[in-house]
């Protein structure tokens, strides 16, 4: 499946909670895999905005259980504090 095929798909938790719509993705180029799906378009912002986006407006791709008519994720799909901090630092190091 191409990443472009999931843009605009609705994202639901496995307990039926609507989380948002796929608007963007973060791709780990070194591993060649998607690491997160974002529910808002990615913008070069200050660190606080990056942190908010990662904590509140994204899901870890490893939590995706199924992609069909919608994207189904395990639990709420919210990153842990440690995961969002690590992602924020990776993004900062990459110059974004």
Uncertain runs: 77-86, 88-96
How large is the share of residues in beta strands?
25-35%
In percent, how helical is the residue content? 10-25%
For this structure, the CATH topology is SH3 type barrels
Q: Within the largest sheet, what's the order of strands? A: 2-1-7-6
The number of helices is: 2
Essential attributes:
alpha+beta; SH3 type barrels; 4-stranded mixed sheet; 3-stranded antiparallel sheet; 30% strand
Q: How would you describe this structure to a colleague?
A:
The protein is an alpha+beta fold and 96 residues long. It has one domain: SH3 type barrels (Roll). Helices cover 24% and strands 30% of the residues. The protein has 2 helices and 7 strands; from the N terminus they run ββββαβββα. The strands form 2 sheets. The protein has a 4-stranded mixed β-sheet with strand order 2-1-7-6, with no helix packed on it. Strand 1 and strand 2 form a beta hairpin. The longest helix is centred in the last third of the chain and has 13 residues. The N and C termini lie far apart (27 Å).
Summarize the structure.
By secondary structure, the protein is an alpha+beta fold. The chain has two helices and seven strands, in the order ββββαβββα. The strands form two sheets. Strands 2-1-7-6 form a four-stranded mixed β-sheet, with no helix packed on it. A three-stranded antiparallel β-sheet has the order 3-4-5.
Secondary structure layout:
Elements: E1 10-13, E2 18-21, E3 24-28, E4 33-38, H1 47-56, E5 58-60, E6 64-67, E7 71-73, H2 81-93
Parallel strand pairs: 1-7
Antiparallel strand pairs: 1-2, 3-4, 4-5, 6-7
């Amino acid at each position: 499946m191409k990443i472009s095929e999931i843009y605009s798909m609705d994202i639901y938790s496995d307990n039926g909670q609507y989380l948002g719509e796929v608007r963007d993705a973060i791709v780990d180029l070194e591993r060649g895999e998607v690491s997160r799906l974002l529910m808002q378009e990615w913008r070069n912002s200050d660190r606080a905005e990056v942190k908010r986006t990662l904590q509140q407006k994204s899901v870890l791709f490893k939590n995706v259980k199924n992609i069909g008519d919608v994207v189904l994720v395990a639990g709420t799909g919210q990153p842990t504090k440690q995961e969002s901090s690590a992602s924020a630092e990776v993004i900062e190091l990459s110059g974004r």
